[in-house]
From TrEMBL:
One of its GO terms (molecular function) is FMN binding. Pfam families: Oxidored_FMN. Keywords: Flavoprotein, FMN, Oxidoreductase. Belongs to the NADH:flavin oxidoreductase/NADH oxidase family. This is NADH:flavin oxidoreductase/NADH oxidase. Residues 22-226 form the NADH:flavin oxidoreductase/NADH oxidase N-terminal domain.
Length: 481
């Protein structure tokens, strides 16, 4: 990427104008532009809890960067069911509201150099059967994850895959059979949304993608024996009962201007899981309830992490339209949905890392808003510095062109390098961790480093700063309940 001294081309100007255009949501709130910082677990701290100083610094940087919406990393509604030991949680303690309020103020602050502050959404989440006791250390290894079924993720076929999945999930998940337990989960989601509103956040996003609990409820593979939940109208499909109760609960307990969003898979990309036909039916039904302001489209689960591909962002593909992972799905779905503000705005996330591609996705209505994940860890000011910067020529406004030093070595060592039967989850994890470490760097006031070797990240950012200094005591308290 190079800064040009020449005047921007008409094409650049048109694209920038389109991406900069505001969008009104069904609840009346206006998104200042079309760029969304997608939800990314920040990797800061240890043992759960509300945002820390590192989160404040990181979100301040994003807030200055010209994003239209900033979505937080997954905040887990149950502190014993984490996706990572660094996840945000919402303990019932007065300091929780205080910390989330501080974070919202850091983003909405009035002296921001950008003309309009971004909207801030809290992604609320439950990892379901993918919560690994071994990795997240929030419960003893023999305590199961919970899910609609009894299972453990299949990370790949063969003995190496068997080994990894049994190390990460020593026990299969415990199936939830009791309606009261489902209603308790509904309550936790609704309480989290109420807290977010009290803390000054603009809304919440329900994480119903990537094989997490709400996605497991939608999938025929992980929820084969769906039972009705109480107080749901008869015409609501069984598989949507859980989402309906949560959305209804949030709707009844928050103001109209509080944004309700959901992230769903267009496909699970696993045999027997949710497919594109089922997903488009689900989305059409969700839209028909008129409860949602935003729907984000992603895809994949831990067994098949499509949301993390391509693992190496450096693309040798000259045809940029093929970098957008799920655009074929949204392009065929969107003509049947009312455009915002009559219907929810659609965010498309995954591989949309250059201005031209972002603009063409909006022009062709593959989406109304574009979600950007990984590059936002390296370029917190990505919208204002690159995508919306008229000094950056069209062909240079590309942010995905980097390789992770040492990642190939790690993938080989961990059995993930073979494109056929390598463990995709490990490959995705290698990339995800490196990006988390970049966010940790911003959090402690240091610039991200695109040349950081993976092993240096593991030793310095992870082991030293987040594990050793991030609060082993906090983790111990969390484990002891
Ligand atoms: C470090 C990291 C953490 C992530 N954490 C979350 C998360 O908490 N919730 C979520 O829905 N997606 C999460 N994702 C997936 C991103 O939101 C996004 O869907 C994915 O990175 C694809 O977008 P991209 O190609 O622009 O990176 C994460 C991705 C990364 C790289």
């Amino acid at each position: 990427m190079a800064v040009a001294n020449v005047a921007p081309s008409t094409e650049s100007q048109d694209d920038i104008e389109l991406i900069s255009s505001p969008l009104t949501l069904p609840n009346g709130l206006v998104v200042p532009n079309r760029l969304v910082k997608a939800a990314m677990a920040e990797g800061i701290g240890l043992g759960g809890g509300p945002p820390r100083e590192g989160h404040m610094n990181l979100y301040r940087r994003w807030a200055e960067g010209g994003w239209g919406i900033i979505i937080s990393g997954n905040a887990q509604i149950d502190p014993r069911q984490l996706a990572s030991p660094h996840d945000l949680t919402l303990p019932s303690h007065p300091s929780t509201l205080k910390a989330y309020t501080r974070l919202a103020s850091a983003v909405h602050r009035h002296d921001s150099p950008t003309p309009s502050a971004p909207l801030l959404l809290m992604q609320i989440s439950h990892p379901g059967l993918q919560s690994s006791a071994t990795i997240n250390l929030s419960r003893w290894p023999w305590e199961s994850a919970i899910a609609p079924c009894s299972d453990r993720p299949t990370v790949s076929e063969g003995p190496v895959g068997w080994f990894w999945s049994h190390v990460m999930w020593p026990t299969k998940s415990r199936p939830i059979v009791d309606t009261t337990e489902w209603l308790e989960i509904v309550k936790r989601f609704v309480d989290a949304a109420v807290l977010a509103e009290k803390a000054g956040w603009d809304g919440v996003q329900l994480h119903s993608a990537h094989g997490y609990l709400l996605a497991e409820y939608l999938s025929p593979l992980t929820n084969p024996d769906t039972k009705p939940l109480p107080d749901v109208p008869k015409d609501i499909p069984l598989r949507l009962h859980l989402l309906y109760l949560i959305l209804k609960g949030i709707h009844q307990n928050t103001e109209k201007r509080f944004i309700k969003a959901v992230k769903v898979n267009c496909s699970d990309f696993v045999q027997g899981g949710l497919d594109e036909t089922q997903s488009s039916e689900i989305i059409k039904t969700l839209v028909s309830w008129s409860l949602l302001d935003i729907i984000e489209i992603s895809g994949g689960t831990y067994s098949s992490p499509a949301f993390a591909s391509p693992e190496s962002l450096k693309s040798s593909n000259p045809n940029p339209s093929r970098q957008s992972l799920f655009a074929h799905f949204t392009t065929s779905l969107l003509p049947s949905l009312p455009p915002p503000p009559d219907g929810p705005a659609i965010i498309l996330t995954g591989g949309l890392h250059d201005r031209q591609l972002i603009a063409s996705s909006l022009k062709e209505r593959a989406c109304d808003l574009v979600g950007i994940g990984r590059p936002a860890c390296l370029y917190p000011h990505l919208p204002s510095d690159i995508i919306l910067n008229p000094k950056i020529q069209e062909g240079d406004a590309v942010v995905g062109g980097y390789r992770i030093p040492g990642s190939e070595l790690m993938k080989t060592l961990l059995g993930a390098s073979n494109p056929k039967n390598g463990i995709k989850l490990v490959g995705a994890g290698v990339s995800t961790l490196w990006h988390e470490w970049q966010m940790c760097r911003i959090g402690r006031g240091v610039e991200p480093d695109v040349n950081m070797h993976w092993l240096r990240g593991a030793m310095v950012e992870e082991m030293w700063y987040e594990v050793m200094r991030g609060g082993p005591l906090n983790w111990w308290r969390c484990l002891m309940g």
